[in-house]
User: Fold this.
Amino acid sequence: MTSHRFLAFVEDASASSSIADESSEAGRVIELYRKNLGQEPTHLVWLDGIEKPYFESLTWIDTPCDSNSQLDREQRKDHLNSLDPSKLSVFLLALHKDDNSAFFDELVETAWLEVSIFDSQETDSVPGLQSPDYEQERIEEVWIVFERRVEGDGLSKLRNVFSLGHLAEADFNIHKPMYYQFTPYQHLRIDFFEISGGNETGTNHPANRPREV
Assistant:
């Protein structure tokens, strides 16, 4: 049994019946849930994660960033671009809103959760797919256990590092529009390869409860 602890950002949670046919990955994770837990999942969930020990080892997570300071913006750009890609993962998981209610009840979009990732089924775990990025070059079947919702000082650190608010004048000058490849959601996503100082306003994401049919 191998396990890893991740801090995971809730990108999306949608009723599985509304998106089951939109990708092979959606069908795959639904079948994993059906096969191992004996029923249909009610929702599919998209998480973006960073390994917790790695995040906590970063020396700059408490460093404030003044969006009015070009020096601060440049420093934050360098920090973000220096993140180790091997410590980042994306997850697509299936769950049932009643049988996995402790997990489901925390699925507010833009929330940060602490989760444990296992390579085999564990008590209170739900099945999912893990990939290092959106390109799907390697997808692994995993089991995900909800540990807690991140709050307080931990949440402040995550928001300080990953919020685009401090890049209010950011210019994402090396990017391309693309559709989600790993997830079943067909809305447009911008894939950022590098962040640099400029004049484009960042985007704020609304917080939503899981979407039903």
Notes: The chain is about 25% helix and 35% strand. Residues 3-167 form one domain. Helices lie at 16-19, 24-37, 52-57, 70-81, 101-104, 152-162. Residues 24-37 form the longest helix (14 residues).
